[in-house]
């Protein structure tokens, strides 16, 4: 699986997306040709992962333009549709960044927007491979032996335009024969780790365990892993990092155990306009995701759910931030806003 898993692709007439809600049981695709379908796919996590939805958002501008041509929308209606794509999920900065990158090309027509969106996709794949190399170099500079890695959520080809960010580092370690095993947190409540990361690791022939989120701290404190590597949906200027709910607990355990807590993300995930994690909007999703599973209610009638999709790890707990440009030592005071 060098790059055969492609979560987002332009098929000439619209977007072809892997429907990640069906994995691992079935690999199926969605063909998206209108804004309603794209916003729905983003919000229900058929396409997910900050880099992947950034690319989807960029192509989404072309989808809106072609729909406007078919249906005779005026300019305000087109711009409103583009805004709907841009705001489909609030926490991941990449979605808005992807839309913003291509909007200057709207005056040149849909084909120009598509070309720029494809350039963004290609850049993401190249950047992910650079993240993998930088991260592996940094880790093996500290301990040149097969490493035991803990991951949280999904950060592979499914979450990006291809290859992966945190999982890209895992792939690079595996390619260098410096990976022992991966502990993949299940990632409640939607089980992205158990469903998606495990699926990708299996295709890569990487040895792994799926573990309950509640096992992560114990795994770390028992000395069963050497490093935790996660992705990010937004990184503030001071290095505070928003990622899938449960990430901050992993970071706290790493700090207590004295092992690195590494964040891997493209530079586009860094939001220099947000000073700290206090300014990062945290998406709250439907309580049904917590109160039900497989269409069956698992909590008592009348129970309410608190379901934030993300939490923010303070910069002081982030050992290193790996981007396509290199490694920053965040807890030591080297932060994006000071570069």
Polypeptide structure, described:
The chain has 339 residues and is of the alpha/beta class. The chain has two domains: 8-123, Four Helix Bundle (Hemerythrin (Met), subunit A) (Up-down Bundle); 131-338, Translation initiation factor eif-2b, domain 2 (Rossmann fold). 38% of the residues lie in helices and 17% in strands. The longest helix has 33 residues, at 110-142. It starts with 7 loop residues before the first strand and ends in an 11-residue tail after the last strand.
Features:
2 domains, 7-stranded mixed sheet, Four Helix Bundle (Hemerythrin (Met), subunit A), Rossmann fold, alpha/beta, globular, 339 residues, 17% strand
Topology at a glance:
Blueprint: E1 8-10, E2 15-18, E3 29-32, H1 35-43, H2 50-71, H3 75-86, H4 93-102, H5 110-142, E4 147-151, H6 166-175, E5 179-185, H7 192-203, E6 208-211, H8 216-221, E7 227-230, E8 234-236, E9 241-244, H9 247-257, E10 261-264, E11 270-271, H10 288-291, E12 292-293, E13 296-297, E14 310-313, E15 320-323, E16 326-328
Parallel strand pairs: 4-5, 4-7, 5-6, 7-10, 8-11, 10-15
Antiparallel strand pairs: 1-2, 2-3, 8-9, 9-14, 12-13, 15-16
Helix pairs in contact: 2-3, 2-4, 2-5, 5-6
